[in-house]
Structures are given as C-alpha cells and as structure tokens.
Design a protein that fits this description.
single chain, alpha+beta, 3-stranded mixed sheet, two-stranded antiparallel sheet, 39% helix
Length: 132
C-alpha cells in the first residue's frame, strides 16, 4: 500500500504522522486535522486502524501514541520484530530491526510452542544528543 491508494482521511493522518518529529496521540492528530474537517476521535482511530493494518504506522504501547513507519515502502512486517528507542527527554523515536534479536525470539517461541501474534520492543532512555 502506498500513500496514493489511501482514503482522504487515511492520507491526512499519515501525512501528519510523517511530518511529526515525535510520536502523536490520536487526540493530538485530531487537533492538527480539525481544519481538514475532522470532528471526532473515531475518524482518527478508523484511519489509524487501517494504517496499522497496512504497516504504514506503528503504535507505541508505552506512550499510547503513533509514529509513521520508518520503512513504509519496505513492508515493515517482513522485518520481524519492530523495535523502538524512545528518548524520555526530547521524545525522539528511532525505529530499528535486529535479525539476531528476531532469531533469539523465534527460538524462544518455538521452544515454548507459543503462537506469537505481534512483537514490539520499546527501549526507553536518552538519545545521544540528550545524554551528551
């Protein structure tokens, strides 16, 4: 899925997240899109639900907020585990993938006969700029 194939609302929500310099809650997105006809949180949540399904955005569980995928044209789901480094000071989020981590988690899941549906890793701390 690419940005040209999105509905108007999905495109607007994706554009806001793509331009954001830090994660955004659904209500913050709603505030940014009021001039575009958004009136209710449900409009934002419906768009976010589809964008999540398409792999174009990610939900940061610990922040209850959303970020645009760093690899929207690369089908993020193929990378396995999605991991995020979240700065507690400036709010910067860096998305990354590590195949060694994927392999270790896959081995654990297989050994335990656990059927994993989704794996997200969130590392909280200070980015290099804030730690300096």
């Amino acid at each position: 899925m690419n940005a040209q194939q999105l509905t108007k609302n999905q495109g607007l929500v994706f554009d806001v997240l793509s331009r954001a310099d830090q994660p955004m809650s659904a209500y913050t997105i709603l505030d940014k899109l009021r001039d575009n006809g958004f009136r209710a949180p449900l409009q934002v949540y419906r768009a976010l639900e589809k964008l999540l399904e398409f792999g174009m955005v990610h939900r940061l569980e610990s922040l209850n907020a959303f970020v645009a995928c760093a690899h929207p044209n690369d089908n993020c789901c193929r990378h396995g585990t999605v991991a995020f480094a979240i700065c507690n000071s400036c709010g910067h989020v860096e998305e990354f993938h590590d195949h060694a981590v994927d392999d270790r988690l896959d081995a654990f899941v297989k050994a335990k006969r656990f059927k994993a549906e989704k794996t997200t890793i969130e590392i909280r701390g200070l980015c290099s700029a804030c730690a300096a």
